[in-house]
Amino acid sequence: MTEIQIPRWLVAAGATGMLLLATGMMTQVQASAEPEKQEQVEEGEQASQQQEDVKEAAATESTPGDYTIIDGKVDQGTYDGYIAFTRNCMACHGPDGVGSTFAPSLVKAAERRSFAEFARTIAGGRDIQPGRVMPSFADDQYVLSNIENIYSYMKARAAGDLGRGRPKVIEEEEEEEASEGSDED
Amino acid sequence: MLREMSYAIATMGLLAASVAAQANQNQLELQQNPELWATQLGNYQGNRYSQLDQINRDNISDLRAQWQFSTGVLRGHEGGPLYVGDGRLYIHTPFPNKVFALDLEDEGRIVWSYEPDQDSRVIPVMCCDTVNRGLAYADGKLFLNQADNTVIALDAESGELLWEANNGDHTKGETMTMSPLVVHDKVLVGVSGGEFGVRGHLTAYNIETGEMEWRGYSNGPDDDVLLDPETTMMMGEPIGEADLGVSTWPEGEWERGGGAPWGWITYDPELDLVYYGTGNPGTWNPDQRTIDGEPADNKWSITVFARDPNTGQTKWVYQKVPFDEWDYDGVNENQLIDVEIDGEQRKGLAIIDRTGFGFLLDRETGELLVAEKFAPETNWASHYDMETGRPVVNEEFSTFRQGVNVNTTDICPTAMGAKNMQPSAYSPETGLLYAGINRICMNYEPFETEYVAGQPYVGATLTMMPAPTQDGDMEGRMGSFIAWDPVAGEVVWKKDERFAVWSGALATAGGLAFYGTLEGYVKAVDIETGEELWRFKTPSGIIGNVNTFQHQGKQYIAVLSGVGGWAGIGLAAGLEDPEAGLGAVGVFSALDDYTELGGILTVFSLPDA
């Protein structure tokens, strides 16, 4: 895993829920003077604006949520998303993202939420009820650098292209032969 | 009144000074009074049996809920209420670990409540929900293990905080979920965090001051484990070899070797020994725990410890699963029962274990007497070698032999165990144990993982499915309630349930056994036959324990509802049918279809005549 140094100011920004991420690297941070007001903006509009920001900031051509599946095998990023999920999210969000009695299904979350929202919740956390908390992962470099991968894994699960359990990874030659960004099974 | 009583008991204690072991006189006195439920497992022996018989087979159908109390906390409610005779029920909650004293004479009016101030960052390092298995009581004090590793003592009269002690560091993945046990002037506590590469230990604090008195680790050098290879026994012989807690691990791996004792502690006041089991060894990837590529025992994970509560010194050990390959934590309660075996009276120790095996040991020596399957689907081992005390592992289901990055399929039981922490009951009248069990199997795929402090250290992925059914089983069942003969090693009767039975059992002199289900039912069955005689649907799934007590001539049954725990994680969306294709999730019953969150205490009794 690539070592990513996260500056203190960026961690602080994450805690306010305004952290933006792109392609597994933090390349842009948008801080707001009125974070609460901005939170209230209509979901769709806000999300699409941030999506565009993310796209602009992206270092590679892939967009968050992309995945490749060939014969039930997945690309490395989606696989890394599965592993990051099992290490950090599964304890509450259930095996393979299906949810538990106390934490929602992330498969459904990926269906409903934009990448920006998904990333913001992971980075900023969320107070749902007293004693019922989605923690902030703003100071967890491993999770931050895998948010896109987790999102891709959940998108693949939500689309029904990927089942439960640990997927296999596509061999490199296979991947090169495959058409770009396809969802083949 | 209570204070006077404890003075009287203290005096009695002095008079009885010739008795070698004094336990905690106050706690011992309370638990010997059949009207009270003064410790989570009912008595030091862990029997969860009550001599009360006002509620019995003849009138059980009249049992009514008298009042309910919402704890205001969602998520899994394990453990149960204590009743020490002062007209109040003492209950606790999952994180944030509130404590309530409820007036039994005023339908649960809150006499006092206490809520610790804890760092919420402890929540994500709790592997299997933010559960807590309950309070302990002695000498007018209540003891609680907070999730954030703070051990506290409260004045039971006022709820005032008397002392607190720090038992660990949640930023390294250490947490606390287990219920403390008071023995002598010490409160014994264990750490959780087996999925985070913690180094397990059991620690004793002084009940008056909160000062640490001793700590015995589950791994590492003998001086840390508090054992002496010349005198500590294993399978009836001195261990012999020094520092097995180091040498049975690859270089340094014992330092993150798990063995967290997060289950129950039991105590024999005559032998003056405490008993508990340790959890899984470090990572779930067995390959990372080998020496020169061969299985290593990873001592003292998944081991029953018998310790002297005064010093912590280990009298004997029995490792149930050397070199774990399935996450079969050995923390299940050690029931102390006196048995006749081969015409001989023995001081026994019975375990309905995670592994699917029911064990019977001699609790003086640690000698293994019986090891038989109580869950018939159990296939990871064919049997136990009674000479060596080791399981004979079935290579087909050995996740180590099958290899890293290989999905070993259809292993029974699942990592949840054929029985998890839900404590069993024992009736001295029938000589049988009663337990809720899990009928679930798994596929398990180990993979290479790296230790990072405070991060999960698991290294295996697994999927679960209901255990295959046999003739007469309920279709798709994922749990059963069983009566187990610990001497014969046989199931006497069983009653299937839709979901794993994750609640603690109760046996009573009224000819009844009680348990709760994940859908939220409290059920009473005939202790002789298992026939269901009564049920009541509480508002949320039950993973707590059914307790009973008598106040002013009236017997009560009380239980905490509040679905969650590992069962709430694994069964919420239903299990996968391994035969079905993609997207077939939920072909087996999903817990989400039956219950929702909610922390509720329900108190039952018979209507006034």
UniProtKB/TrEMBL annotation, chain A:
Superkingdom is Bacteria
Which SUPFAM superfamilies has this protein been placed in? Cytochrome c
Record's signal peptide: none
Native organism taxonomy: Bacteria, Pseudomonadati, Pseudomonadota, Gammaproteobacteria, Oceanospirillales
The biased composition feature labelled Acidic residues covers 171-185
**Start and end of every Cytochrome c domain?**
76-158
UniProt keyword terms in alphabetical order: Heme, Iron, Metal-binding
Stretches the record annotates as Disordered: 31-69, 161-185
Q: What is this protein called?
A: Cytochrome c domain-containing protein
Q: Which organism is it from?
A: Litchfieldella qijiaojingensis
Keyword Acetylation listed? The answer is no
From TrEMBL, chain B:
Signal sequence annotation: 1-23
Read off the Pfam families from this record. Answer: PQQ
SMART domains according to UniProt: PQQ (SM00564)
Describe the location of the Pyrrolo-quinoline quinone repeat domain by residue ranges: 37-384, 502-557
Keywords of the record, alphabetical order, are: Metal-binding, Oxidoreductase, PQQ, Signal
Question: So which cofactors does this thing need?
Answer: pyrroloquinoline quinone
Q: Which family does it belong to?
A: Belongs to the bacterial PQQ dehydrogenase family.
Protein name listed in UniProt: Methanol dehydrogenase
- Recorded source organism is Litchfieldella qijiaojingensis
Instruction: Tell me the organism's taxonomic lineage.
Output: Bacteria, Pseudomonadati, Pseudomonadota, Gammaproteobacteria, Oceanospirillales
- Primary gene name: xoxF
